[in-house]
Amino acid sequence: MKMRSILQFSISILIFLLCLFTNAQEEKETIAIDSIKYTQKYGLRVGTDISKLIRTALEDDYQGFELNADFRLTKKIYIAAEIGNEKKTTTTDFLNVTASGSYIKAGIDYNMFNNWLGMNNMIYSGFRTGFSTFSQTRNSYTVYNQNQFWQPQFTNNNAEEYGGLSAIWLELIIGIKAEVLNNLFVGINAQLKGTFSKKQPENLENLYIPGFNKTYDSGNFGVGFGYTVSYFIPIFTK
Amino acid sequence: MKKIITLLLLFIAISFSCERDDLCDEDTPTTPSLIVEFRDVILVENPKNVSIRVEDVDDSTRVLTNYDDVTEDQMILPLKTDVDETKYRVYKNYNVATDGTITGNPDVITIQYRRKEIYVSRACGFKTIFENVEIIIEPDTDNWMDFAAPINDNQSVLNENEIHFTILH
């Protein structure tokens, strides 16, 4: 394994040097156009999370839409934001609750990928601060009772809405964005989230937070995935 | 690059793995049952065993699990969560003779209460707690139960950590 790595490394270095060498040769002949070779495009990239659209189409208990955007600030750093709306029904054997609301996330992406000239792909990591305002509707519940001598257990079908709920969280994001056509990008990312402030309903809890996704009994952590399609609008080059 | 792919796979694995949150743990306190202790009618602080059989008042073939002719000094009674009243028939010295005749002394108790549903967790949903619980011993010609008394005024049944009622006999 180690030998293979060393071999791969040596070959890469060789190819790299070879490229440099051939480049250098070419440069000698075309000094006049050298300066434009190193320019990079800067601009705004706007897109949507297609996984949310697909889930909206396929899943009865989910509706969601997200607009995302990033703006290239420096060679490696992008400011990024997402804004969206989600409605999700959580159903268990004893409980049926619908969460519905909007969210906004903003933060920074750092591109860790060294592109070849002319390429704009990203392997990035970054963070977001998320804020969601939403409501939860308890559609129905059936009392949980370990002893089933008397049946049925009480079922309440009177929906009750708990409004004015909110949550603030921090998330770490890692992902890839690849340019598949000129200025058109597809991407995949994963998010690890942790809430640090939330307003819970009385006699219920936040089972799903739009933008944060499912909550867990075990703690404040959550996870998320995104599959994005976005279009890059070049604004300037430098 | 490899590291990132590994991380991505890890994330996916976490999100699709079995979520223990979705199963209600049996140790989680949910809807409590009423705990009644049998005590001596003269020495009212002393638990006193009695041979009992506890059954559905409307269907004598439905016997409460673990209470089919046992000698106990307490009984744990589940309460109905859909109405404010639960009735049991409690036999003392229940016996079925070879010809099918049932002997023993049946007393009917009516338990009345107010219900309230309390949220427990995602997996367990809601539990019912019972407030202002009362036990009424229906009078008959030969009651073996003398008196039912709550431990506290306006007795509630919130959990199964302590006895809620005493029945003197």
Give a description of the structure:
- The complex is a heterodimer of chains A (238) and B (169).
- Chain A is built from two helices and eleven strands; from the N terminus they run αβαββββββββββ.
- The longest helix of chain A is centred in the N-terminal third of the chain and has 28 residues, at 2-29.
- In chain A, the strands form two sheets. An eight-stranded antiparallel beta barrel of chain A has the order 1-2-3-4-5-7-8-11. In chain A, strands 9-10 form a two-stranded antiparallel sheet.
- Chain A has 238 residues and is of the alpha+beta class.
- In chain B, strands 2, 3, 4, 6, 7 and 8 form a six-stranded antiparallel sheet that branches. A four-stranded mixed sheet of chain B has the order 5-1-10-9, with no helix packed on it.
- Chain B is 9% helix and 46% strand.
- Chain B has a single domain (25-168), classed as Immunoglobulin-like (Sandwich).
- Chain B is built from one helix and ten strands, in the order αββββββββββ.
Mind sketching the topology for me?
The complex is a heterodimer of chains A (238) and B (169).
Chain A: H1 2-29, E1 41-49, H2 50-58, E2 62-72, E3 77-91, E4 95-111, E5 122-142, E6 155-156, E7 160-181, E8 184-199, E9 208-209, E10 213-214, E11 221-237
Antiparallel strand pairs in A: 1-2, 1-11, 2-3, 3-4, 4-5, 5-6, 5-7, 7-8, 8-11, 9-10
Chain B: H1 2-16, E1 34-39, E2 50-56, E3 59-63, E4 70-72, E5 74-77, E6 85-96, E7 102-121, E8 125-137, E9 147-150, E10 165-168
Q: Could you give a short description of this structure?
A:
The complex is a heterodimer of chains A (238) and B (169). Chain A is an alpha+beta fold.
Runs of chain B in which pLDDT lies below 50 for 5 or more consecutive residues are none
What is the CATH C-level name of chain B?
Mainly Beta
| N/C terminus separation of chain A | 42 Å
Distance between the termini of chain B: 78 Å
Given helix and strand content, the structural type of chain B is mainly beta
CATH topology of the largest domain in chain A: Porin
Alpha-beta classification of chain A: alpha+beta
Helical element count of chain B? 1
